[in-house]
Each structure stands twice: as structure tokens, then as C-alpha cells.
Amino acid sequence: MGGTRQNDEDGDMEHIHAGKVRDLYRDGEDILLVASDRISVYDVTLPTPIPGKGALLTQLSNWWFEHFRDVVPNHVRSVTDVPAEFAGRAIRCRPLKMVQVECIARGYLAGMGLREYQKYGTVSGVALPPGLEEGSKLPEPIFTPTTKASEGHDEFITFDDVVNQEGRATAERLRELTLEIYRRGAEHAANQGILVADTKLEFGWDSDGVLTLGDEVLTSDSSRFWPADEWEPGRPQYAFDKQFVRDWAAGTGWDKTPPGPEVPADIVEATRRRYAEAYERITGNTWQ
Fold first, then answer.
1. H or E element: which one contains 29?
2. Closest CA to 213 of 101, 105, 96
3. Secondary structure E strands in 65-167
4. I need a labelling partner for 164 at 20 to 30 A (CA). Which of 80, 81, 107, 249 fits?
5. What is the pLDDT of residues 171-229, one digit of tens each?
6. What radius of gyration, in Å, describes the C-alpha atoms of the chain?
7. Pure H helices in 142-199
């Protein structure tokens, strides 16, 4: 993959990928995963950044990577050995060959899952009981994988689709790890007054062929976080995550195609506050 080079103190870093909200650099044998303050909704990056968002997501992910160290290896080499310009919002990582599946765990019904359930009574091929409504707690957490689209929208696939693509042993391990991380993370968050409705995880193979947790973990961009004391099925929930921005954007009349609308200052600040509150509740640390 082609890229641009820039100088750092140790030599050249190569910019190898610009995602909707993250940038990847190759630095020697390592990868630098740099989170920007950009925010994307409906697969469109909005023109207005959320100040501090990249650092909030990075530092929450770092906290979770450490929390789950006994569950699965992760890609983190260092959270401090990064160029000064990226301090606080970058991770120095081991390169991974990423599994081409978005691994999603759901404990509550919302978003794409709600829409599929309303049509078919299933989510990602998993049958659910009748009578559930928006925000309902599921009988048990379920694994609902999706495609990993480089362009356009991710689509639900079934567990059998993952088996066909990755092999049964890998598919079963992906499901097992996704549900274990979700259960442990949701239990911790619930003790801090936050319900984790769902979350998306990504895994890859390291150079020794070990399945490894990468990307981000249980952040406000990759999860739905709801205040436990305000949870009420049958309606939209208060969100400590980017659902707040999705709802605002949808309410503007925007047709969900580029370019996205400018985000007003009050929505920017409310989003930043919600991300910061999720970080503080989950980690017990004060956000500076």
C-alpha cells in the first residue's frame, strides 16, 4: 500500500492508511495507530471535529486492553513511545493480519439489531423471543458478526458464514472471545452505572499465528453505553456514545450521503462531555 513519509526523531514514518477516524503509520517494524478527533456517522466523516475525542478513545481502549490482558493477547507494544505530536492519542502496535469480520456482541436490542429483529425475529441469524422492543435486554448476550466493508455499510452475516470464511475453529474462538470480553466488560461497566448494550471488536493474527485483539476496545465509538438508572425499554436511551450524534444528524434532514453537515458547537460540547463521562465512570480516572 502506498503512503506518504514524514520525519520523526528516529527516521521516517510512513503514513499507510487514513480511515474515517484513525490514521495508520508504519514505523520500522511497528504500526502507529493514531486516533483523530474526527467523528463519523452513517459511514460519513463529519466536517466538525470533537476536541479531545481521539485521546479519550485511545486512553479508554488502553485501560480495557490492560483489563483484558488475562483473556486474550493484544496488539499494544507501548502507549508512551510515540511521537510527541501524537502523545495521548496513539498506540505503538504489533502489526496484525486482520480477520475480515466485525465481531459484535449484543446484550440489548438496538440499532441494526433492532431493525433486523423487527423484520425477521432474528439478529445475524440468531432467533430471539417474540415481544422484545427497542432497548430490551436479551435473554443472554449473542454474537452477531458483520462484514468488514472498506466502502459502504457493513452487513450482518451468520455464524455459519464466519465458519465458511475463516474455518470452524477460528469462528468458534472469535465467538468465544467476543462474548467473554463483552460479558466481563459489561459486568465492570454495570458496577459503574453504565449498561453496555453492544460492542464491536476486531481481531487479527500476529507473526506467530496467535489470534490477537486489536483496533479499539469498548469505547464510545465502538459500543453503545447507556446510564443504568435511566434505562427503560420501548424508547431510545440516553447515550454516552456517538448514537447522540447519529440522532442529531438524522434529525437535520441530511440524506446520509457525503458531505455531512457541520456540527453546531452545543452538540460538539455535549458529545465531548458524554465521551468524557463514560471514560471517567469506567476507569475511575478524572479526565483532564
1. none
2. 96
3. 76-78, 90-93, 97-98, 103-108, 122-123, 126-127, 137-143
4. 107
5. 999 999 999 999 999 999 999 999 999 999 999 999 999 999 999 999 999 999 999 99
6. 19
7. 159-166, 168-191
